[in-house]
Design a protein that fits this description.
The structure is a single chain. This protein is of the alpha/beta class. It has a single domain (4-186), classed as Flavodoxin domain (Rossmann fold), CATH 3.40.50.360. Helix content is 35%, strand content 14%. It has helices at residues 19-27, 37-40, 48-57, 74-83, 125-128, 130-138, 155-158, 161-176, 182-186; strands at residues 4-8, 32-36, 60-66, 101-107, 142-143, 147-149. Strands 1, 2, 3, 4, 5 and 6 form a 6-stranded parallel sheet that branches. Helix 1 packs parallel to helix 8. The radius of gyration is 16 Å and the shape is globular. The two termini are 14 Å apart.
């Protein structure tokens, strides 16, 4: 069984349209470690030793968050700055995360056509996630195509919350059980609930 950890970051958790349900679903998956960063570190006093050990203990690292100003919520940046130390995650002898897999599960407020060169966001959502992808590469981790929900603000009215949350649970279980089709995922810019690259159970 592959060891998966989910880091959840949402500063407005109780007002979330989708992420709070995703978080609840992730926490319920047996064998998956769930960490709520804002709950555990309300003053951003991140315990570097604890977090580095968590990374060492897991094979797949998932960060779940809403897209904030084309980036992550601030606690994720703080976590990166402190936890991914030189000599641990990168640099001379910094190979402790080599071979692990890294993925983000992100929700965007705008519709999918907004995240195109012709749309009002002007770039695909994957482009905005380039710093995280490069972080994974610098740390010698494999960056997996992000799990994305577009139109998150309208998701309850559009009936998208339940299928997206269900897809998220399926994805986490597949990662845990080595049923996630990495070859198929490499060909995808993003993963959505209706296009999950899963292998059938034996």
């Amino acid at each position: 069984m592959t060891k998966v950890i989910v880091y959840y970051a949402h500063p407005g958790h109780k007002h979330s349209h989708v992420n709070r349900y995703m978080a609840r679903a992730a926490a319920a998956v047996e064998g998956v470690t769930y960490v709520d960063l804002y709950h555990d570190y309300p003053r951003f006093d991140i315990d570097v030793n604890v977090e580095q050990q968590r990374l060492l203990d897991h094979d797949v690292i998932v960060f779940q968050f809403p897209f904030f100003w084309y980036s992550t919520p601030s606690i994720i940046k703080e976590w990166q700055d402190l936890v991914l130390e030189h000599g641990f995650a990168y640099g001379h002898e910094g190979d402790k995360l080599a071979g692990k897999r890294f993925m983000v599960a992100v929700t965007g407020a705008g519709p999918s056509d907004a995240y195109t060169h012709e749309g009002y966001q002007h770039f695909p959502i994957r482009t905005f996630l380039t710093p995280l992808e490069q972080t994974a590469r610098l740390c010698k981790m494999q960056f997996l195509a992000p799990y994305v929900l577009y139109g998150a603000l309208r998701a309850p009215e559009d009936g998208l919350v339940e299928p997206h949350v269900d897809g998220y649970q399926q994805l986490l279980k597949a990662l845990r059980d080595d049923r996630y089709d990495l070859t198929a995922a490499e060909k995808m810019d993003v993963v959505t609930f209706d296009k999950l690259p899963l292998r059938k159970e034996a």
